[in-house]
């Protein structure tokens, strides 16, 4: 018997030890007992980190939507699968039952097939947080198409880059979206993106805001009339365990975004098993993750993990501040939410508001609180614990990544004693280790180093779409035979992990992972700019904000600097998206560089963070004099 649901600490250690001693048996028992297969696997695991090649449950046949929907129909057909809470609090919430979800997924799957989408084709999904978003993921999975969701806050440029990188055939979008008191013209953004995307044959448009939009003859169609005509039955495509399920882009420290490829069986088993244990989900609980499905958190812990467990998962269309800062707490009271999963940046923003916003709502339904996306600082942790959890609901600080597919280091609620700012212990099957700069494993406790994982887990990304070499270089080259996370961490005296942050050029702003390169490229597109470098600096709410150092060309020097700042941010909005705008821009004559021409970001980071006294050794720079100048003009 597998230990599918872990109930106390002793049991956690026992299960953990078993998962390390005999990973193959451990995972095959879970896979066998809790999922539906058309054929079982020939091999549980085959792996080689030097290639790298990772195969889980090879030879098995399945369809993830049968596991997420069909198998629940007999016992839970009338249970709410997706509970949709609209942006406007006066619009009714929608309860989509498993039975109805089955019909709607099948109808959309049939529409996709009618438009020539087949197994292995890529479909780009650019939708707001409305039910059609979750349904689109599942409809693709139903017929074996690979979904590539692009967060609907990204610009047309970011969208076209992602569409072209994986040659998507179709885009599913909406006329527009609601965001607080604003509406956003999504279809307009898609139209601009598609000027540059020859692979797109069709665009299906959800009518969300009833706006007058342009429909390009022969390419664009409203979705609803097509759904109305489509059959509610669609046989699931039988997939191989290692067939790609989706591509999801994440920023790298250099170059274009990386299309992380996740495959079917391992991803399903791992997200389902982590969901069950990290949130201690019980039948009839109502679970809410506030992330957008455009990020991995939404893929794994709004859609696949919860539905594989037959759970009720909430989708919220709006924002925490609309119509006021009590909206999250109002929704928790309204739907009697039992598990609530959000990001530190939201917690910090809400903790700043009048306490009445939280206290006037009945939050007594809450059993588990979750945090994800960046380190949670001590102050935010305590506010979350005291004001929202009333000191009785454990906080699960879950560390993981787009690349890991599922939660890796986390407390289990009511099992693992929590410790503020610590993600605590590895989930069963996960073998973390800390490495020093010489590539040696750091043994013992009370140490810090670079966080690596020594052994494969079922939901790890298998490659970067179209660029396996980059996958190898990014994750498997820094440390031999180990997956390198890009994060630093420390391990305390009892073996708890605390994630200290990125050790590469990725900056996490409001929980969004931003690479420096694409933002610098956007800045450099400005005709008055010669060169630029961006770094993060601490920010009360966002965690980190962006600070740009910009060298102007001669033509720029004579221009009004504030106008230039606005134009630079406008460029960033167009090329990357508004989340990547710079809070501060300092114009400078030079950037500190090493002899090999590399910008010394460490120095720029310290200056932007106003830690001027600890700049360290600057003698290896070719131009040490610029450091003084930058210090004197810091903003
Ligand atoms: C990076 C991954 C995985 C879902 C959302 C982010 C940081 C994530 C934590 C945490 C400290 C965290 C890491 C990681 N991060 N969770 N609980 N404590 N840092 O996914 O966009 O791929 O970003 O987010 O730096 O490497 P992502």
TrEMBL record:
Stored Gene3D superfamilies: 3.30.300.30, N-terminal domain of ligase-like (3.40.50.12780)
Species the sequence originates in: Aureibaculum marinum
Residue stretches making up the AMP-dependent synthetase/ligase domain: 70-462
Domain AMP-binding enzyme C-terminal: 519-598
Lineage per the UniProt record: Bacteria, Pseudomonadati, Bacteroidota, Flavobacteriia, Flavobacteriales
EC numbers on record: 6.2.1.1
Enzyme class: ligase
Pfam family name, one: AMP-binding_C
PROSITE patterns recorded: AMP_BINDING
Protein name: Acetate--CoA ligase
Residue ranges occupied by any Acetyl-coenzyme A synthetase N-terminal domain in the UniProt entry: 12-68
Keywords assigned by UniProt, alphabetized: Acetylation, ATP-binding, Ligase, Nucleotide-binding
GO molecular function: acetate-CoA ligase activity; AMP binding; ATP binding
Record-level GO BP terms: acetyl-CoA biosynthetic process from acetate
Similarity annotation: Belongs to the ATP-dependent AMP-binding enzyme family.
Signal peptide: none
InterPro entries: Ac_CoA_lig, ACAS_N, AMP-bd_C, AMP-bd_C_sf, AMP-binding_CS, AMP-dep_synth/lig_dom, ANL_N_sf
Gene this chain is encoded by: acs
């Amino acid at each position: 018997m597998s230990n599918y649901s872990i109930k106390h600490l002793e049991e956690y250690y026992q299960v953990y030890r078993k998962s390390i001693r005999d990973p193959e048996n451990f995972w095959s028992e879970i896979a066998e007992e809790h999922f539906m297969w058309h054929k079982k696997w020939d091999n549980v695991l085959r792996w080689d980190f030097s290639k790298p090649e990772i195969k889980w449950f090879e030879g098995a046949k399945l369809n993830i939507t049968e596991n997420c929907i069909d198998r629940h129909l007999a016992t839970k057909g009338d249970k709410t699968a997706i509970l949709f809470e609209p942006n406007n609090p006066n619009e009714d919430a929608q309860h989509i039952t498993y039975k109805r979800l089955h019909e709607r997924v099948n109808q959309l799957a049939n529409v996709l097939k009618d438009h020539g989408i087949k197994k292995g084709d890529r479909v780009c999904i650019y939708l707001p947080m409305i039910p059609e978003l979750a349904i689109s993921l599942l409809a693709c999975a139903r017929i074996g198409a690979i979904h590539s969701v692009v967060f609907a806050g990204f610009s047309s440029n970011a969208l076209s880059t992602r569409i072209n990188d994986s040659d998507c055939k179709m885009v599913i979008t909406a006329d527009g979206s609601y965001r607080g008191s604003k509406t956003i013209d999504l279809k307009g953004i898609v139209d601009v993106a598609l000027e540059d995307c020859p692979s797109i044959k069709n665009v299906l448009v959800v009518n969300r805001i009833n706006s007058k939009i342009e429909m390009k003859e022969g390419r664009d169609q409203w979705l609803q009339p097509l759904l109305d005509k489509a059959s509610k039955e669609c046989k699931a495509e039988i997939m191989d365990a290692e067939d790609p399920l989706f591509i999801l882009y994440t920023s790298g420290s250099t170059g274009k975004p990386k299309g992380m490829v996740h495959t079917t069986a391992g991803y399903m088993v791992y997200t389902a098993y982590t969901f069950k244990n990290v949130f201690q989900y019980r039948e009839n609980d109502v679970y809410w993750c506030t992330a957008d499905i455009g990020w991995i958190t939404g893929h794994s812990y709004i859609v696949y993990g919860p539905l594989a467990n037959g759970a009720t998962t909430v989708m919220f269309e709006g924002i925490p501040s609309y119509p006021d800062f009590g909206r999250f707490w109002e929704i928790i009271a309204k739907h009697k939410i039992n598990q609530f999963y959000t990001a530190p940046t939201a917690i910090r923003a809400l903790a700043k508001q009048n306490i009445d916003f939280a206290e006037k709502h009945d939050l007594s339904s809450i059993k588990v609180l979750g945090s994800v996306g960046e380190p949670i600082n001590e102050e935010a942790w305590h506010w979350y614990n005291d004001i929202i959890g009333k000191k009785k609901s454990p906080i699960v600080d879950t560390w993981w990544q787009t690349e890991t597919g599922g939660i890796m280091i986390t407390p289990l609620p009511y099992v693992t004693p929590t410790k503020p700012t610590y993600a605590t212990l590895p989930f069963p099957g996960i073998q973390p280790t800390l490495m020093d700069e010489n590539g040696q494993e750091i043994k013992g406790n009370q140490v810090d180093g670079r966080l690596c994982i020594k052994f494969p887990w079922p939901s790890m990304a298998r490659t970067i779409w179209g660029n396996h070499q980059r996958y190898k270089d990014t994750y498997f080259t820094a440390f031999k035979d180990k997956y390198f996370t890009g994060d630093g961490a420390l391990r305390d005296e009892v073996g708890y992990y605390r994630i200290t942050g990125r050790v590469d050029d990725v900056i996490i702003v409001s929980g969004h992972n931003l690479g420096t390169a694409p933002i610098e490229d956007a800045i450099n597109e400005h005709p008055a700019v010669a060169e630029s470098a961006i770094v993060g600096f601490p920010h009360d709410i966002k965690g980190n904000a962006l600070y740009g150092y910009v060298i102007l060309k001669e033509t720029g020097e004579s221009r009004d600097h504030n106008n230039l700042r606005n134009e630079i941010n406008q460029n960033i909005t167009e090329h990357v998206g508004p989340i990547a705008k710079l809070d501060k821009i300092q114009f400078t004559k030079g950037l500190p560089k090493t002899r090999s021409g590399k910008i010394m970001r460490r120095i720029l980071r310290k200056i932007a963070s106003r830690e001027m006294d600890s700049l360290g050794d600057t003698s290896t720079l070719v131009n040490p004099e610029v450091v003084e100048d930058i210090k004197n003009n810091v903003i």
